[in-house]
Amino acid sequence: MKIAHRSKVRSFFLGATLFAGFGFDGYAADPERSFLIDLNSREVTELGSLGGGRTVAMGINDLGQVVGQSVTSAARYHAFITGPDGIGIRDLGILGVVDQSSASAINGAGQVVGHSGEAFITEADGRNMRAIGSLGGGSTSAHDINAAGQVVGQSFTSAGSYHGFITGPDGMGMRDLDTSGGRTSTPLAINDSGQVAGHYVTSAGAQGAFITGPDGMGMKDLGALGGAITDVYDINAAGQVVGAYRASSGVTHAFVTGTDGVGMRDLGTLGGGFSVAQGINDAGEVVGRSTISTGAEHIFITGPGGEGLTDLSSLVGLPEGLVQVYEIDINNAGQVSAMGIPEPQSYIMLLAGLALIGFVARRKRLLV
Question: What's residue 30's pLDDT?
Answer without folding.
Answer: 57
